[in-house]
Amino acid sequence: MLLSSLLSHEAEEIDIWDAKKMDSAIFIDSRKQAEYEVSHIPKAVWVGYENPNLESLEKLDKETPLIIYCSVGYRSEKISLQLEKKGFKKVYNLYGGIFEWVNQGNEVVDNEGKTTDKVHAYNLLWGVWLTNGEKVY
């Protein structure tokens, strides 16, 4: 699969099934603000990617499980590694990202916290990997 070759696999990965079972975890969105505003995993905290706002996480216990995601897992892998360098012990890259989350029928919410079918598909090339939901560019 393309995703397997895209990632370096340096960050520990977690699949959707296991991520959903991790009740104490905090989901961290590493996409652009505009992508997050279209939809995100419920209760996810936005930090971004290009100039990530990691300071917003500094008050968290370093043992708090963090599940980092983006569209497919590339950007979130980079942010996962940065969080590990900041001393977080339980950092996981959500394999397949929000695309796989939605493809498996899981809920996403808009900026007002309302359930939505819309997902920012990043661009036309990456959008082919989103097979569920309504693509927004």
Salient structural properties:
single chain, 137 residues, alpha/beta, five-stranded parallel sheet, two-stranded antiparallel ribbon
Walk me through the structure.
The structure is a single chain. With 137 residues, the chain is of the alpha/beta class. It has a single domain, classed as 3-Layer(aba) Sandwich (Oxidized Rhodanese, domain 1), CATH 3.40.250. The protein has six helices and nine strands. The protein has a five-stranded parallel sheet. The chain has a two-stranded antiparallel ribbon with strand order 6-7. Helix 4 links the parallel strand 4 and strand 5. It is globular and about 35 Å long. The two termini are 24 Å apart. The mean pLDDT is 94.
Concise account of the structure shown:
The chain has 137 residues and is of the alpha/beta class. It has helices spanning 2-6, 16-21, 33-38, 74-85, 97-103, 124-127, and strands at residues 13-14, 26-29, 45-46, 66-69, 91-94, 108-109, 115-116, 118-120, 134-136.
| Overall average pLDDT | 94
User: Based on the structure given, which CATH architecture is correct?
Assistant: 3-Layer(aba) Sandwich
H and E order: HEHEHEEHEHEEEHE
SS-derived structural category: alpha/beta
In terms of DSSP E residues, the strand content is 15-25%
Query: Which strand order does the major sheet show?
Result: 1-5-4-2-3
User: What fold name stands as the CATH topology?
Assistant: Oxidized Rhodanese, domain 1
Question: Termini separation (Å)?
Answer: 24 Å
What form results from the Cα inertia axes?
Answer: globular
Major sheet characteristics? 5 strands, parallel
State the share of residues found in helices, binned by percent: 25-40%
Q: How many structural units, i.e. domains?
A: 1
Poorly predicted tracts of residues? none
User: What is the tally of helical segments?
Assistant: 6
